[in-house]
Amino acid sequence: MGKRLIMQARGKGGPRYRANSHRWFGIIEYPAPSKEPVKGEVLDLVNSVGHSAPLIVVKYENGKEALFPAPLGIKVGATIYAGTGAPVEIGCILPLDDIPSGYPIFDIERVPFNGPEFVRTSGSSAAVVGKESGKVLVKLPSKQTVLFDPRCRATIGVIAGGGRTEKPWVKAGKHFLALKAKGGRIFPRVSGVAQNSIDHPFGGSHRRSLGIPTTTRRQGTPPGRKVGLLSARKTGRGK
Fold first, then answer.
1. Where do you find CATH 2.30.30.30 in the chain?
2. What is the pLDDT of residues 147-171, one digit of tens each?
3. Comparing 237 with 138, which gets the higher pLDDT?
4. pLDDT over 80 (residue 195)
5. Residues of each domain in the chain carrying CATH 4.10.950.10
6. Which residues pair with 155 in a beta bridge?
7. Measured between alpha carbons, how far is 30 from 53 in angstroms, rounded to an integer?
8. pLDDT score of 184
9. Is the peptide bond preceding residue 54 cis, with omega within 30 degrees of 0?
C-alpha cells in the first residue's frame, strides 16, 4: 500500500504540518477605522516565534489595543496616531491616499479595513510611487508595482530586524527548530530525485537523471503526479 507524498500530506492539513499558532504572541491587526486620528502609546516590544520581526503592543485612547510589527527606531512609551489626518511619522497608520510619494511604508492592507497583509517581514518596506485612475501605485520590496484602493491603510517606516538574514544559522538544528516553531515549513528540503520511488515520482534511481518529463498537465493529472513544472508555458534555457 502506498502512502501520501509530502505535498499531499501538507494539503491534508495534519498536525505535523499545521502551524503552532497557539504558541504565538498574538494576531497582527490594525485598530478600527476612524475619521479622526486616534492617539496611542507603545506599551511593550515583544518577540513572537511565529513572526520574523519584533512586535509592538499599542494601546489607544479609545481603550483598544493593536499588535503589529515594530518600525525601525520605535521605543516603549512613544506616541503614535492612527486614522485619517494622522501625522506622517514613524509608526503612524494612515490611508494610502494620505501618504506622500517616496515615504517608506509597511503592513499594507489588500482590502480596506481588513487588516495588514503585504510587507510584514523584518527589514522590508514599500513606497508609494504615484496615483492613477483613482488608485494608489505602490512599489513592493520585490520591485513590482501594484495598484491599491486609496482607503487601504499602511504604517509609516521600515520594519525592524533588518539584519536577521545576515546572521548564519551555524548549526542545522537551530534552523530546524526555528522553522518548526512557525509550522508548515519543511527542513531540510530533499530533492525529488534523491528520494525513493514511493516518496516521489522523480525518485527510485541511483542517478540524478529523471528519465521522465518534468512538465505536468494541470487538468486531468492525479495529485500524486503534480510535481515539477505545472502547466509550464515554456521550458529550457532562454536564448
1. 21-165
2. 999 999 999 999 999 988 899 999 9
3. 138
4. yes
5. 6-14+184-230
6. 93, 106
7. 16
8. 64
9. no
Written as nine digits, the cell of 186 is 519543511
Query: CA 33 → CA 62, 92, 107, 119, 196, distances in Å?
Result: 12, 13, 15, 20, 54
Alpha-carbon distance 58 to 56, whole Å? Answer: 6
Q: What is the pLDDT of residues 83-131, one digit of tens each?
A: 998 999 999 999 999 999 999 999 999 999 999 999 999 999 999 999 8
Domain 6-14+184-230 has CATH 4.10.950.10: yes
Global pTM reads 0.79
Tally of CB atoms within 10 A around 223: 11
16-21: long-range contacts (C-beta < 8 A, 24 or more apart)?
17/183, 17/184, 17/186, 18/183, 18/184, 19/50, 19/182, 19/183, 19/184, 20/50, 20/181, 20/182, 20/183, 21/50, 21/183
Given the candidates 2.30.30.30, 2.60.40.1510, 3.40.50.12230, 2.40.30.10, the CATH classification of the domain at 21-165 is 2.30.30.30
